[in-house]
Structure formats: C-alpha cells, structure tokens
Amino acid sequence: MCDNNLSAVLYKKREEYPQCDIVMENRPINEPGEDDVLLQMHSVGICGSDVSYWVKGRIGDFVVKDPMIIGHEAAGRVVKCGKNVKHLKPGDRVAIEPGYPLRQDEFSKNGRYNLSKVFFCATPPDHGNLQRFYTHKADYCFKLPDNVSYEEGALIEPLSVGIHACRRAQVTLGHNVLVCGAGPIGLVSLLVAKSMGASKVVITDLFESRLEMAKSLGADFVHKIEKGQTPEETAKKVIEMLGDMPERTIECTGAEAAIQTGIYATKSGGCLLLVGLGPEMINVPLVNAAVREVDIRGVFRYCNTYPAAIQMLSAGKVNVKPLVTHRFPLEETEEAFKVMRSGQGIKVMLKCDPNDQNP
Ligand code: NAD
C-alpha cells in the first residue's frame, strides 16, 4: 500500500484566469472517526462542476475561498473502520455517496435528504476526495458486488442524477421521452429512462459527436440543433421523429432555448424536469405550460439512489462503461481537467491507486 496522500487541491487566485490553480500536495491521512471509514481511493470522475470551480472559482453562491480538495464522483477500498461501523470491513470495495445530511431536519426525516443542509464533497467549503486516502461517513459508502467495477462505482454519482430525474418524472412503460442535451447527465438520463420502460427516447444536442455517443447508448432518435433554429421548430422536429408528443422531457442543458423547447414539446398533462442549471433568470412560455397542465419539476442532485444504482449495474440493466472516454493517473490531474474543459470525450477518470490503474 502506498503511504503518501497525494491530493488535488484548488487554490484561489486573484483576478486571473483560470480563477483557481490545481496544486498536487501531500495531505495528512486522517484517522476515521467512530462512524467513518478510511478509504484508499481508486477512481474519481471529473464533473462539469469541478471544472467550473477551477475555471470560475465559484458556482452561484458557492465560492472557493479556502484551499479545497476537488472530486466527488468516487469509489475506493476500505482500509480501516471506525468502532461503530458494522456493515463494512477492510478490503470492501465501495461507491461513495458524496452528500449526506448534517441534521435530522424535516427533509431528512421524510427521506428527501438532498434538500437538507448537507455536507457535499467538493462543494465549498467541504473537501472532496480526489486523493489517495479519504475518510467518509460509513453509512454513505455502499459495498460494490464483485461484478461492478470501481469506475462503475464512481459513475453511480452522475447516474444517480438520472435516476432521481426519472423517478421524479415517473417515467414508465410506453412513455416517449425527450432528453435535451447529450452531456454526461443527458446520457445517464437516457439510459435510466430506457431501463424504466420508455419506449422511445429522442435526445438533442448542438454537437454531432455527443449525439453519436447517445445513439450508441440506445437513443432511438437524435436531433442536432442548428444555428438559428427556434425552440418551436425544435419541438416540431422532436414530435415528428416520435410520431407523437413526448409525455416526459428531461432538460439537461440549462439553456433557455432548450427549456422553451421542453415546454412546447411536452404532451398536455405531461411533465418537464429541470435538471440543467443555467442562468438565474430565464424566459419561458409559462402560459403554454399552464393551460396544458404540463408540470415543471425541479431536480436537485438525488437521494436514496445508490442501492438501486448498484442493483441496476450488477444486473446489467444499465451500461455506463462506454461513458469513460479518458483516464489519467492522479499525478496528471491538471491535464485531465484540461481535457474535460476542452469538451473532448464524455467522462474523464482519475486513477488514484498507483498499484491498480484498472477500470
Ligand atoms: P455538459 O455541459 O457536459 O452537457 C450539456 C450538453 O448540452 C452539451 O453537450 C451541450 O452541447 C448541450 N446543449 C447546450 N445547449 C443546448 C441546446 N440549446 N439544446 C440542446 N443541447 C444543448 O453538462 P452535464 O455534465 O451533462 O450537465 C448538464 C446540466 O446538468 C448542467 O447544467 C449541470 O449544471 C446540470 N446538473 C444539474 C444537477 C442537478 O442536481 N440538478 C446535477 C448535475 C448536473
């Protein structure tokens, strides 16, 4: 076992671009508290939000003020357990759910702990886990079956967003579904919608390469948005392709035009899920949604998804492996972030165990 704790830390710069530096530094290995486990980290995916903290130093009101370890899509191996931990033992491979509630408030009590005040890895001021060793609440570490790889375990984080969105959309047998945006979140929404029984899924994007990936993952139809195309025109194309209006739209871009498309396209009595997070203020054809009883629902991260995700992966109901397009050793974190920022590929994985860089 290696004995250093190389960690990827964002340091705030002043008035420069990118707004933060990624510094690789050796951090102390923490002893696990009585409800915690110490983990040797294996695979950590980079998310768009990690890149935003690096490039802009903030997402909305969350600002990188103090040095912060980055990374939250992660899986690793248990090295040591706190004295109260009974469900895990050293050697267990686990997926790490990065967010947990800090209080037993009303949301936590009714099961919607994503709406509570939470600790969340790599959301300032909370540290993430892109390092060799990391301690986490054991109750939010989920043992992986032998047939689920570490990388699949790390991908449970974005997959969870798709599961939560499709659960909130109540996607079911026979539904036609529109997914706006073929980034990692749109793609996992596609996979989950299909596995929940959607008959036909159409997915839109601005880029052909992303739509090719969507097609290879099982999208029935893809549609490339052309410059100058209006949201009404896009909705019309979607309806033509499906032969009907979609009962559900899962919006995964945050772009005003795509949200407008979602309203125009969704069948009366259907549901539009807002997963994408864009500008604070957006113009939408609200009366169109109101008079056709198109429900508009928010999605914030997820809750209670990890056990279901592990079952789905283990049973082969979803295949997230093709999402990983690039791999880098932990030492090359900055290179990996540059690839992610350039928009090449879909999911970039960092490999934290110098003795095991396998998927
Ligand atoms: P991404 O940037 O990789 O993908 C977004 C895709 O949308 C891109 O491929 C882009 O080309 C495409 N796009 C942009 N404008 C479009 C338009 N008008 N029509 C169709 N496609 C368009 O991002 P991602 O990692 O896939 O995340 C998607 C969104 O989900 C982001 O806004 C992110 O902040 C948000 N997100 C929300 C939650 C949540 O809890 N609600 C969680 C994770 C991510």
TrEMBL record:
It comes from the Eukaryota. GO terms for molecular function: L-iditol 2-dehydrogenase (NAD+) activity; zinc ion binding. GO terms for biological process: sorbitol catabolic process. Its cofactor is Zn(2+). Signal peptide: none annotated. PANTHER family: SORBITOL DEHYDROGENASE (PTHR43161). Belongs to the zinc-containing alcohol dehydrogenase family. This is Sorbitol dehydrogenase.
